[in-house]
Amino acid sequence: MSQSSMDDDELFGEAAEEMRADVEEHLDAARAELPESDAIWDVDADNTLGVLNALRSALDIDDVEAHVRDAKKAFVMGERADAFEDADDLEADLAAVEDVLADLETAREQVGELASTVPELRSALDDAHDGE
């Protein structure tokens, strides 16, 4: 191998480009795994519990979380190595996807709580009416 192909600055530049590409690829993959808006808006179910269970399934974010985590790892490594000339766009994209992910997590928790509360409420109402 020639000396010019082993230049540290050149190798660092290539590594920085690869790191940026890695962050971008994981962000793209995370966005692709986000549920479609229709998946959480249009639900086919026979009752409230069915709606809640369908919604909770639509809010599954495990794959999104994995891609965001990988993107963040690559981003943090690049930042700490000072590998990115301008990382503002990556940081903004990462923050935007993390914000959506946080909203999805919150919604999933709330739907899960409702899914466990509604059957209990139904039973309590049935009991109350049976006692009349």
Automatic annotation (TrEMBL):
Keywords: Coiled coil. It holds the Pfam family DUF5790. This is Uncharacterized protein. InterPro entries: DUF5790. Residues 80-107 form a coiled coil. The lineage of its organism: Archaea, Methanobacteriati, Methanobacteriota, Stenosarchaea group, Halobacteria. It comes from Halobacterium jilantaiense.
